[in-house]
Specification:
Blueprint: E1 7-17, E2 23-26, E3 33-36, H1 44-50, E4 58-63, E5 77-81, E6 95-99, E7 105-113, E8 117-121, E9 131-142, H2 145-150
Antiparallel strand pairs: 1-2, 1-3, 1-9, 4-9, 5-8, 6-7, 7-8
């Protein structure tokens, strides 16, 4: 079955930086990643290229930085007084979590620090990197009305199985 908008897609993946072999992230042999297409739940460059695949297909998908976690924004780096980090054992590359202006969780990375200052980076750790996903499409089904409303996978599926097993979901074969 072919992936369409508002389908629940289940994938297994392995992520590397394009042109390199070190695995950055993987769910192979673990719980599949499930998401609803059209809700921006995964990086846009990966989702758009998955739309060409069907259940059972495997592909190596290169996603340019701009369509992944964005290009590096040099203005997203800030140097702050060290006393704002009192009590923390700092190390370069360390993630720190805080609260943004609207109450959202903000993650920053410690770029460098001295006795007086700490330089933090608000860019995503993978910003500026072209990525390579090795993916397998495990399942595709139409999202339930509940899932379409909430944007959350789970609940409400009639149990008839995936599009490939007669679920009648409307995703194209």
């Amino acid at each position: 079955m072919k992936i369409e908008d508002k389908c629940v897609v289940s994938i297994e993946y392995e992520l590397t930086e394009a042109g390199k072999s070190d695995i950055i992230d993987s769910n192979k042999g673990e719980t599949p990643l499930e998401f609803i297409t059209g809700f921006g739940q995964i990086i846009p460059g990966l989702e758009s290229q998955l739309m060409d695949l069907s259940i059972g297909e495997k592909a190596d998908i290169k996603v340019d930085a701009a369509d992944a976690y964005g290009t590096l924004n040099e203005e997203a780096v800030e140097t702050l007084p060290r006393e704002q980090f009192a009590g923390l054992e700092l190390s370069e590359g360390m993630p720190l979590y805080g609260q943004g202006e609207n109450g959202e969780t903000v993650t920053v990375t410690v770029k460098e620090f001295t006795d007086d200052t700490v330089t933090i980076d608000y860019n995503h750790p993978l910003a500026g990197q072209d990525l390579m996903f090795s993916v397998s499409v495990l399942d595709v089904r139409e999202a339930t009305e509940d899932e379409k409303t909430t944007g959350q996978v789970g609940g409400g599926h009639d149990g008839a199985g995936s599009c490939g097993t007669g679920g009648g979901c409307g995703c194209k074969g």
